[in-house]
Structures are given as C-alpha cells and as structure tokens.
C-alpha cells in the first residue's frame, strides 16, 4: 500500500500510512522503507528521512546499505545534502555500484562535471568496475 501511494504520486499519504504502521507495531520491510525514503526525498523532508534512515540502522534492516543506499543518495541529494549522499556512497564502498551510479548521475544532472568525473576516477582507483550506466552518466556529465 505504501509503495503504491508513493508510485502514484501520493507521497504524503505514504508517509502517514508508514507512521500508522509503526504506531500499531507493524514491522516494515525494505520495500516499505525504500518507498518511505523516496517519499521523504520527493517532499524535501530531510529530517524525517534521516529519522527513517536511523530507524533502519537501529533495527539492522539493511546493515551494509546494500538495498537502501541508492534511495538514501537520492533523498539527501534532493534535500540539498550532497555531502550526506557522498557519505552514503563511501560507507557502501565497493559493495554497491548502484549507489555510486546514483551519485554520478545526480552530479551530471546538476551540471557538476568535475564532481561526477572525480567520483568516476575514484571508482576506478578503488577497482570498482564501471558498468554501462556508469559510463553513460559520466559521459553525460560532459
């Protein structure tokens, strides 16, 4: 239900349902948390997003950020917190290329050419193998 609201453009309703879910003692899964974090980003609610992120960390729902890292990158970037997005990518290390790709794509979209290319170079230096999306995002930054 929450992910349907989010996909349908009803982000505020998704967040209300999440609050009710927690209030009544239901445990969210990663799909629910992904949708809630996405809703927070779309609405520019960084404080609420950080709270949900903290909830996931405390509950150890995604201990290595393997599932939530891409949406966390987007959440923080959409709320103007690019440094937090970078921190998520660096916390993931080489385990999740999707998070790296998300940040490179965001840099490219915002016209931050140097940052996008520096991140690409950092990936290569860390021996994280770029995929076709990485290359396309890096080229589009130029």
Automatic annotation (TrEMBL):
Entry keywords, A to Z? Repeat
PPR repeat ranges per the UniProt record? 96-130
Give an example GO biological process.
RNA modification
What are the recorded GO MF terms, alphabetically? RNA binding
InterPro entries per the record? PPR_At4g14850-like_plant, PPR_rpt, TPR-like_helical_dom_sf
- One Pfam family cited in the UniProt record for this chain: PPR_2
Q: Which PANTHER family match?
A: PENTATRICOPEPTIDE REPEAT-CONTAINING PROTEIN
- The name under which this protein is listed is Putative pentatricopeptide repeat-containing protein, mitochondrial
Q: Which organism is it from?
A: Noccaea caerulescens (Alpine penny-cress)
